[in-house]
Amino acid sequence: MKWLSNKYAYLLVALVVLASVALQAAWLMQLFRAQQVQVKRDLDQAVSSAARMNDYLSIAKGQEKSENFRNFFLSKEWLQLKQAFTGMRAHQVNASFSSELKNDTTIIGIGLRVANTPPKPHRGRVIRNFDEGETLETAMLSDKQDLRRMDSLVKVECDRNLVAVKGHHLLYDYETGKPESQKVWKSAQDADYRSELYAYNLNFFFHNYQFVVPSIDNIVIYRMRYYLISSLIMLLLTGTAFIFLFRVIRSQQLYTQARLAFTGNMTHELKTPVAVIEAALDAIKRYQLAQDPGKLYNYIDISKTELQRLNLMINKVLNLDQLDDGEIKLRPELYDVQQGLEGVVSSMQLQNGLNGTKINLVQAGEPCFVDGDPVHLTNVFYNLIDNALKYCPAGSTITISCDCDADNVQISFSDNGPGIAKMYKERIFDRFFRVPESAELHNVKGSGLGLHYVKQIIERHGGRIRVQSEPGKGSNFIIDLPGYHEV
User: Fold this and answer.
1) Predicted model pTM
2) Using CA atoms, how far apart are residues 478 and 475, in angstroms rounded to an integer?
3) Which of 221, 239, 284, 477 could disulfide-pair with 413, CB 3.0 to 4.6 Å?
């Protein structure tokens, strides 16, 4: 599976993400079309309801209290009958329509004349009958009022059907069926919605009314808002999950690589003291050094030093495991940081591996007390100094300074080593991580555990550690610990 995870993992995830996006897009497009159909149905319902109401209002004067009158002219059946009558004119059928209101009855006359043979084209004369005292001018004025009322009713019905769209009407000549405005008619051909033609009153048949909506995309998208938001959230969650997964996999790969490097380094580190002790014991036996106490004690001292070194490496690993498992319990007490630093520096100056490196301790003018575990804080100081010794060239100077006030103790470990690149400053405290070797570093031994242990212990004491470093300008590790306060 290694070839699959390393070579094709990103491609596989990309294909999965693209497939998810494509499926979501296809589903949303299908939903968009379905919503378009539904919006058009709602608009049809709104315009037809407005046409029925306008028919009723155009002849309702004096009949407002008649429930049967109202129910008939507001019924869907009446609208279908009137629309069928209007549609007959397209089949070259001569039709006549008349309405007469009496005291208790409304008489509607509908006449159809169907020719047995195709009629010859001719321009017929339109006959209009008006009520007594009514002229063409007053009829046209009333027709305009009915038209304005139709527009108002369409808007009210659209709002009632939750289709807040921006539309306009288009008028057709009732007799010829031609639009009154060719310009408006041409622009309406590209509109998303055009209603059926409706005669919007029962008194005068001057025009047919058509409601036109140039675009219904906004209302469709508004209705789909929750689906769009949920799809976006799902895609974001999917993408976030894959990113998180890749980071985890990447971290695991880096951890595995670092652990393998740690195993190799620790094997080498452990072999060295064992080999030295083995050689010393072999020399004692082979050369019968019991007869030469001076050399015997020298080899014993060498073996003892290597055993101490071996014990320190084992304790470092055990301490980290116990720290990660939460098994280490600090035993804090009143601890003088400067006194602890003096002891560590004195001990390390006695070692033979300084290579001419000078350790300079700059102390504060007064004791710096913290509430800390002496054993672990001493290990922290040892690790930081040992780390500086490993990376500093021969003859360098390591400066350790301590300063304190009423609330804080600050300890600085400064060296003139090769420095640390910016990209590694945060990762140097990761477990097993070691800065890659460069031309200035040659086979620096280490396990990658020291700085990780240091950070864990400092944070367990309520402090923090940070590093200031630039390549070629050395490094400065700064520890901040809370000062000791009596309860």
Assistant:
1) 0.52
2) 10
3) 477
pLDDT at 472: 85
Count how many Cα atoms sit within 13 Å of the Cα of residue 356 in the half-sphere of its side chain.
4
pLDDT tens figures, 434-451: 776 654 444 555 556 778
DSSP β-bridge partners for residue 482: 408
Question: pLDDT band at residue 336, thresholds of 50, 70 and 90?
Answer: very high
124 has pLDDT over 60: no
Within 8 A by CB and 6+ apart from 485, the residues are: 371
Q: What is the 3-state secondary structure (H, E, C) of the chain?
A: CHHHHHHCHHHHHHHHHHHHHHHHHHHHHHHHHHHHHHHHHHHHHHHHHHHHHHHHHHHCCCCCCCHHHHHHHCCHHHHHHHHHHHHHHHHCCEEEEEEEECCCCEEEEEEEECCCCCCCCCCCCCCCCCCCCCCHHHHHHHHHHHHHHHHHHHHHHHHHCCCCCCCEEEEEECCCCCECCHHHHHHHCCCCEECCCECCCCCCCCEEEEEEECCCHHHHHHHCHHHHHHHHHHHHHHHHHHHHHHHHHHHHHHHHHHHHHHHHHHHHHHHHHHHHHHHHHHHHHHCCHHHCHHHHHHHHHHHHHHHHHHHHHHHHHHHHHHHHCCCCCCCCEEEEHHHHHHHHHHHHHCCCCCCCCEEEEECCCCCCEEEECHHHHHHHHHHHHHHHHHHCCCCCEEEEEEEECCCEEEEEEEECCCCCCHHHCCHHHCCCCCCCCCCCCCCCCCCCCHHHHHHHHHHHCCCEEEEEECCCCCEEEEEEEEECCCC
pLDDT single digits (tens) 110-122: 777 776 666 665 5
What residues form DSSP beta bridges with 402? 411
Tell me how long the chain is. 487
